[in-house]
Each structure stands twice: as structure tokens, then as C-alpha cells.
Amino acid sequence: MPIYEYVDTHSHLDMPEFDADRQEMLKRAFENGVKTIITTGIDIPSSQKAIDLAAANPAIYAAVGIHPQECTGVTEADFERLELLVKCEKVVAIGECGLDYYRDYSPRHTQLETFYHHLDLADQTGLPLIIHCRQAEEDVLKILSDWSAQSPASAGKGVIHCFSGSAETALKYINMGFYIGLGAYIGYPSSRKYHPAFAAIPLEHIVLETDCPFLPPQTHRGERNEPAYIPLTAATLAEIKNLGTNEVASATTANARRLFHLDK
Question: Where do the domains of the chain lie, and which CATH numbers do they carry?
Fold first, then answer.
């Protein structure tokens, strides 16, 4: 497979699954063309670790936020800390934030309060959001529609992480100024029903992600996911959209660089 340049727009490099071989994992990513990685916080400690990883490696950038499943017990002090972290060098996004009604690990009212705080932070900083939405589409669409209509930014408001939905829903997000994040799960047998939707999403509004160590490609199910597998997702998307992998690589990399202002 030819080597193209990619951006992994959503990883969790701080997680313990990478403690034994983090440097070797990064080397494999670079060797496979994944030249830039955004590592994403899920709470205050992991957001700080994301910043530390970015500071130690020129190819890594950080996103800081509180995941909806990690909202239980969140305090004003946590929000104040987040406001400080977002000002750190190489922080390019706010998140992972949003709503998750699948397991309800956190009370919904707490998820909503925390989500609105992230939206306020995006308004204050101008940084894009990384949105987590699981079985909460109706609420997320309503909240983001209301917010985006009032937000000063006209485009590049963020990315809908790990999207699995209809083309109509994707278009609603795109019209608000969001990009659509797709990962290796698009190659799972269970995702075949979404292939027409993935095919219909305009390539200029798609970014690639791993969500590693989670959601490995179909050929690596049961293993740890890692950024080096991004080319496999690009090839799968190319097949779904009947395009060349080079076209998918070029467009999604340009999209990621534009959304997260990686060329500044």
C-alpha cells in the first residue's frame, strides 16, 4: 500500500494500554504516514496528560475536555482548571464533550451542564469542539443547532466524533459548521447499513480518527487500536465512496489541518 500523509484527529495516547510501548507505537504511526495525532482528554487528569504528550512530541497536539461519561462529581474547580488548560500551548480543540445516553454513567442533567460549559469555552476561545454523541442525537442536534446559530464562528465549529447515522443527519451537522469524524468501525459488518450514508457525506467535510486504543479495524478485532491503522480506514472509506485512497488521504488531511489550524 502506498504511503500517504494522514492526521489521526482523535486518539487517547495517555491511556495505560500504551504505557509499555508508547514510543514504538508512535514510530509505527509515522512510518505509515500518520504524521500528526490529536490526543484527546476525557477528564482533567487525562487532559493534562494530553498536553504533556503534545509538549514532548512535535507531531502530537492536545484536546482538553470532560467526557459525558466522566461528568459525575464534576465541580466548579474542574471547570476553572479546564479554562486554564485550554490556554496551554498546542491545545487545538475542546473535548471530548457531549452527551451519552447509552449507559447513563453520569446523570443527564450533569452531562448537559458540562456540555454547555464546553460550548461556552468554545465561544470564549474560538477553538473547535470534539463532540461525543451516543443515543442522544435529538438533544445534541437541538443544542448544537441553537448554539451554532449564535456562535460567532461561521465554519469549522468542530467534529462529530465516531459518526454513525443517516446522510440527512450528517448534512445537518455540516450545515452547522461541523466536520464528520469516521474511524475503523466503518469497516465492521454491523456498519454496512451505514455505507450509503458514508458514501453520501461530501469528502470535504470528513476527517479520519482512530479513537485508539478502542475500535480497531476489522482485521485487528480483539487487539488494541493505534494511529498506524489510519491508512486502513482511508482505504475502507475509499472503497465505500468509490474513490482512490490517495484522494481520501489528501482531502481528509487537508480538512483536519484546516479545522484544527495545524499549519499555524
Answer: 6-259 (3.20.20.140)
